[in-house]
Amino acid sequence: MKDVNQNKLNSENIHSFLNIDKNLKVNLEIFDQIDSTNSYLLNKKQAVNELNVCIAEMQTKGKGRSGKIWESPKEKNIYLSIGSVLDKEISELDGFSIFIALMICDALKDLYKIKAKIKWPNDLYLENKKFGGILIETKMVNKKLSIVIGIGLNIFMKTNEFINQEWTSLYIEKPFLEIDRNILISKIISEISNNLNYFLEKGFKAFKKDFDKRNILKNKKVLVSNFSSSDCTALDVNEDGSLNLLVDNLKQKVTSGEVSLKIQK
Ligand code: BTN
Question: Ligand 1: which of 130, 151, 225 to mutate, judged by most atoms within 8 Å of the beta carbon?
Answer without folding.
Answer: 151
